[in-house]
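re: the backbone from monday

yeah here it is again, tokenized this time
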């Protein structure tokens, strides 16, 4: 379950931000996660609760904003919105698609004290 490692990286980023911006507590974390990021949201929520115990983010609310996926279609030469990686192009039915959006995860903002 790589979501635990993702949560550990998230905690490290929050600790670095806390030192740089002089805050001691995180009460809410908003993450934007693309549909194609390969993150299982429920596993991430579980990992978040476990990894944040005893840290500056213990008890923090985790808000996940799911971002749509998109891909470049080599058949019709357009960027199209996709609901999942294995979908065909909604414009031409082509299957030669390369994801170009919704592939990452980023911290949108932190609510801190």
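seq for it, each position gets an aa:
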């Amino acid at each position: 379950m790589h979501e635990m490692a993702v949560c550990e990286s998230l905690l490290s980023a929050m600790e670095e931000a806390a030192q740089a911006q002089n805050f001691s507590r995180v009460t809410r974390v908003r993450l934007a996660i693309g549909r194609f990021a390969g993150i299982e949201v429920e596993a991430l929520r579980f990992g978040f609760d476990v990894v944040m115990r005893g840290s500056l983010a213990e008890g923090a609310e985790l808000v996940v904003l799911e971002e749509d996926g998109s891909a470049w279609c080599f058949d019709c030469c357009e960027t199209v919105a996709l609901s999942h990686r294995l979908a065909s192009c909604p414009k031409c039915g082509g299957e030669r698609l390369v994801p170009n959006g919704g592939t990452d995860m980023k911290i949108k903002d932190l609510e801190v004290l």
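The beta strands are 26-34, 61-67, 69-73, 78-82, 97-101, 105-112. The first strand starts at residue 26 and ends at 34.
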